[in-house]
Specification:
Blueprint lengths: L27 H4 L6 H8 L13 H29 L5
């Protein structure tokens, strides 16, 4: 009898009537209209000034770092207090 293909080799019909655009069909000028900031940021982050990367951009980074540390420490203290309260027997 021989082997016969179970699945049809023909491509299925389109489900949606729209076709997709290829990247080569898009105009090059419309894809990105801003300035490339990567080289400037690379220069900033690769400076040998002794600062860690997460503090290189100045005051906003310091504010975010300190806020994160305060929330972390506050959350840890809150969890320890809640654990202590849960471990105490209730007075009746």
């Amino acid at each position: 009898q021989g082997l016969k293909p179970i699945v049809s080799t023909e491509s299925p019909a389109l489900i949606f009537g729209t076709t997709t655009k290829l990247a080569s069909d898009l105009p090059a000028t419309d894809s990105f209209l801003g300035k490339n900031k990567v080289p400037d940021l690379q220069k900033l982050f690769q400076q040998a000034d002794g600062l860690p990367v997460h503090l290189k951009r100045g005051v906003p980074d310091k504010l975010l770092y300190r806020t994160t540390m305060a929330l972390t420490i506050g959350g840890t203290i809150y969890c320890l207090v809640a654990l202590y309260m849960a471990s105490q027997p209730r007075n009746q």
